[in-house]
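Repro:
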Amino acid sequence: MTHLENYRAEIKEEIEKTVGSVPVQPIVFAGSGLSIRYFSGPSWDQLLSQMASSCPKLEHNYGYYRQSRDATEMGSLLADRFSQWAWDKNEEKFSDIDLKYEDTPDIYLKTEISKYFKSITPDSAEDLKEEKLDEDLGLDQAQKEIRKLREIQPHAVVTTNYDRFLENIFNNEGREDEKYDVVVGEEILRSPHKSIGEILKIHGTVTDPSSLTLTSEDYEEFTSRKRYLSSKMLTYFAEHPLLIVGYSATDPNIRSILSWVNQLLPEDEVTAKDIYFLEFDRNIKEYEEYPRMKRIQLGKDRFISVNRIIARDFDWVFDAFASGEGFEVDVRYLRKLLANTYEVVRSKSSDERVVDHKRIEDVAEDKEELATVLGVSAGGKNRGFIFDHDLSPQEMYEKIGLSSAYDFKRKVLKPIYEETGMNITGFNNKYHIAFFNPSVTYRRYSDSAVDLFSEILAGNEFHIQIPKSRVDEEHESRGLDMSDILE
């Protein structure tokens, strides 16, 4: 193995150990670097410079104003000049906006920014364009990275990005109900309970231009709400591994987030062991030594150290974060179950239904009781929830082009067994789930299984995303009998 390959293997093993040691999903904190990487989205200064270049109310070039102003002050200046431009009686550019003097002056700049992002943001990974990718990134690699990012199944995605790229790639599955719920700005503060499966857009979104945090005034308001937002964020960061990607270490947003995390550490500790900072470096092969920690300044005499990952390709990093047990239930249903349970318990019913609080206590304390409520332990035709394992064995065979269980065992299960020592039909996992009763076993397979089995049949390299802790010693006796195909 090369020096770089050794580094990647060691980092991957460390990440897998971290995510495998906790029964929760990672949090992904994603910045504009992802937009830059996948569709040439602008940096903060590039965005403001582009807006400035189109505004006839500015007497000088962007750099002239920027040399004496920070980015938020530039946002305020541009907002004022765009407002002047919009109200010019000879100007038709803003004719599609119903001008009202009650509107905040910054709405015209924010509307223009929203239009710009909508025009450049791909609707899905399939809509990426080769010429818009990072110069060293091919289309196949970019789509592979996004596929691996989705497979992390993060508990939540937190972002300061305005564009809709993250919700497009996590939710674009041709379904009306979104897999991840998009929560914008102040809406984050209104959730009455800890949620799951959310994309938290803390600086606003292009679908609501007024929500964008852009000017000095916006940032002052954001700072005034910061202590409430930080308490919300701490509920996530206290228990979940955190992957930071698409930011630089000097980004004030990162310093703010890590300042929140710093509150969780003991006074004599400055290292956040479960936080990983992923940095892009196209010259990674030239390194003689790979640094493992990143020391980030938070303020005067204050700093925090996090795990540092240097990479040119991101797929192997995302794959490592996806190595945990994951959700066997579609995250949208977990979110709905959590929200509806909360509402049922807290609300008084108009039709005089009574909440059995003892039953709720039993379910909360006993996982077997919860399994009964959900129908997981049901046998026979009443299979309860099948979650996302909705393919019968025959349906699965048809999808991968096989005609019998024997061919499936010989061409698919055997290579998996020889590679991993696992008979994946002997226990419940992301690819297979079984409902056992004394007389018959009902088996179901997932779409992830179809993808995996197709790769194996095509002779491609494959990776089984099942933690070893999931496999018990008796699993072979419950799986499909492989004695007739194993030598």
